[in-house]
Amino acid sequence: MKNNYTLINFEVKDKEYIERTLEAFCMNFKEGITIYKRVGYYKGDITYKIYIGNLNDTQSHEYIYQVDNIDELKGWLYGMVQANNGYMKLFKGEL
Predict the structure, then answer these.
(1) Beta strands in the chain (DSSP E)
(2) What are 60-66's contacts with CB under 8 Å, separation 24+?
(3) Which residues pair with 5 in a beta bridge?
(4) Are 55 and 6 in contact (CB under 8 A)?
(5) CB 52 within 8 A of CB 33
(6) Which of 3, 18, 50, 59 is surrounded by the most beta carbons within 10 Å?
(7) Whole-prediction pTM value?
(8) DSSP character for 85?
(9) Alpha carbon distance 90, 39 (integer Å)
(10) Hey, how many other C-beta atoms are within 10 angstroms of the C-beta on 73?
(11) CA distances from 68 to 1, 3, 18, 49, 58 (A)
(12) Is residue 74 within 8 Å of residue 82, measured between CB atoms?
């Protein structure tokens, strides 16, 4: 299966860090995802903006979620997969 994601402005080490979680996300959500790493004026000013679908950097769309570090991004991707596979039912007592 071809991965349906686009990573914009990512370094190789960042991509390698989230790759397994990102692949699991893509297997659960066929629409695809685009993640844009925005680097500000100083070293610690980094934001990851998440968009639905495979976009390129010239398209203009509203982001659906934003995180401030790569660990939070990885956690968000993991949480989306867990929620999609019914783990939220455990909290509602529906199993």
Answers:
(1) 5-8, 33-39, 46-52, 65-67
(2) 63/36
(3) 33
(4) yes
(5) yes
(6) 18
(7) 0.84
(8) T
(9) 38
(10) 22
(11) 30, 24, 15, 9, 23
(12) no
